[in-house]
Specification:
Elements: H1 2-19, H2 24-38, H3 48-61, E1 69-74, E2 77-84, E3 94-99, E4 118-120, E5 123-125, H4 133-148, E6 157-162, H5 170-178, H6 180-183, E7 187-190, E8 195-198, E9 204-213, E10 215-224, E11 228-229, H7 238-251, H8 260-272, H9 275-286, H10 291-298, H11 301-304, E12 310-318, E13 324-325, E14 328-337, H12 343-354, E15 359-363, H13 376-389, E16 395-400, H14 406-411, E17 416-418, E18 423-425, E19 437-439, H15 440-457
Parallel strand pairs: 3-6, 3-7, 7-17, 8-18, 9-16
Antiparallel strand pairs: 1-2, 2-6, 4-5, 5-19, 8-9, 10-14, 10-15, 11-13, 12-14
Length: 463
């Protein structure tokens, strides 16, 4: 018992010590961050509504009217929308996006408790530190600070916290379909995309402004056969037929594609990327018809998705008994589709590739969206906010190979920009993985970034 009490005292002392030297806004944000990490908002835990109600209470205490705070229950999860009223002189609202749910984290797999914010060796550890309770924290802390300071925006600012981005994404779909008046905006800023890159020595390299996302779509490839007794093998076999189809998929490449975002990204990244990869990026940015450059980029897992649609087998099942010939075999193929390409077109391509004996069936619903336009006001404001913390760092558009709630906003006609501002090394990227973490310094920089960004875009000096 004594040891337990001593540990609690030491832990509390360490938390106070690590928070020393912070200003009042930073202390408030750190305390809020710790509180939000503690909510176990994994699927199946029922904690997203609890966290949403906690946040709603913080906004009510800060003076936001109840009529501007909307809690939307949805099954075991929920969404929260909070409107910061402006005077309307600056135009239509800006939506600010993050999600409250996190990927499952098992305590026995982690070195530290994933649902306790731990500050250690210059990092904040915990599930959601990067994806994306840091975003929930900085947006909430920014609203609380601006309200205390008496800031009156020139346009409404609307926080949109969804509750199932990591799973079904039903809450964002429902908000846009049934409560469009709550979340409608001229454009949206998404904390769950974009961000800063540090080299392995911790120096800032560039800032990625996400302006496009690929469409997430999955298909089942299925073969059928009459089957029979395994002691009487036949030439046609459902598993072998599926294997032949997957071999065709393995060697197939969709055509090379590009847009303004990917070309600008390769140009900027090529300038700071050494060796053959950097050279290929520069050549592709100058001439996307350069086959040699495209071929080299296709061999890089982190880059291939920026140059074409990709489809890859991810799940496999087949047969029904150890001593029977398989009557069916099925593979799940996950595709990340280049913006502007229809899901149905990809399905037709797969069907033609594998042949008429293999059924290609979509799984669930897929949502496509085009790239957001490169708005001058957003580019300028993001540049100003980035340079407030890292002067001179280049800001470049980028296309996400993954998918976020921003995809739904774009598809609904609301241009969306990924402006997460955690600067991080590639070697520190553990979102969805074990021992997720972000640099402590980047968290506090993120607070300054959002203060500059919001007061620039919604201040009375804004264009």
């Amino acid at each position: 018992m004594f040891k337990t009490c001593l540990w609690l005292v030491l832990t509390a002392f360490a938390g106070l010590a690590s928070a020393s030297g912070l200003d009042a806004n930073e202390r408030e944000a750190r305390e809020l961050f710790a509180r939000l990490i503690a909510f176990r908002t994994e699927a199946g835990q029922g904690q997203v509504p609890v966290m949403a109600e906690y946040l709603a209470g913080r906004f009510r205490e800060a003076g936001f009217p109840a009529a501007d705070i909307h809690l939307m229950p949805h099954g075991e999860t929920a969404a929260l929308v909070v409107r910061y009223r402006g005077d309307g002189s600056g135009g239509r609202p800006i939506a600010l996006l993050a999600h409250m749910d996190v990927v499952t984290a098992r305590r026995e797999d982690w070195q530290r408790d994933p649902f306790t914010l731990t500050e250690e060796n210059g990092y904040f550890y915990g599930r959601g530190t990067e994806d994306i309770k840091s975003g929930v924290t900085v947006l909430t802390a920014s609203f609380l600070r601006l309200k205390r300071e008496g800031f009156v925006p020139s346009r409404d600012l609307v926080i949109v916290f969804t509750g199932d981005e990591e799973t079904a994404q039903d809450t964002v779909a429902e908000l846009l379909a049934r409560h469009r008046d709550w979340v409608d905006a001229e454009f949206a800023l998404n904390t769950d995309a974009g961000g800063g890159e540090l080299d392995e020595q911790g120096r800032p390299l560039m800032y990625d402004l996400q302006t496009a996302e690929k469409t997430y779509a999955s298909f089942e490839l299925t073969t059928h056969n009459p089957g029979g007794h395994s002691s009487q093998p036949r030439a046609d076999n459902a598993i072998y037929a599926l294997a032949d189809a997957l071999e065709k998929l393995r060697t197939f490449r969709f055509p090379v594609m590009w847009n303004d975002t990917t070309l600008a990204s390769f140009k900027a990244r090529g300038a700071v990327t050494p060796g053959a990869l950097g050279k290929a990026m520069r050549h592709f940015a100058r001439d996307p018809h350069d086959a040699a450059a495209a071929e080299l980029l296709a061999g890089e897992p982190a880059e291939v998705g920026k140059t074409r649609t990709t489809c890859v087998a991810t799940l496999l099942r087949g047969g029904h008994a150890e001593n029977a010939l398989p009557q069916s075999a099925t593979a799940t193929v996950n595709c990340r589709i280049f913006p502007g390409v229809a899901v149905a077109e990809v399905q037709r391509t797969l069907a033609a590739l594998v042949g008429p004996e293999v059924a290609v069936t979509p799984i669930g619903k897929a949502l496509a969206s085009d790239a957001s336009p490169l708005r001058a006001d957003v580019l300028a404001a993001v540049g100003k906010a980035v340079h407030a913390i890292h002067p001179g760092v280049p800001v470049t558009p980028m296309q996400e190979s993954g998918a976020t709630d921003g995809l739904y906003f774009r598809a609904a006609g609301i241009p969306t920009y990924g402006v997460g501002c955690v600067f991080i090394k590639s070697s520190d990227e553990f979102a969805h993985g074990l021992n997720e973490r972000i640099p402590v310094q980047s968290f506090y920089e993120d607070l300054r970034f959002w203060h500059v960004l919001l007061t620039t875009l919604a201040g009375h000096g804004a264009a």
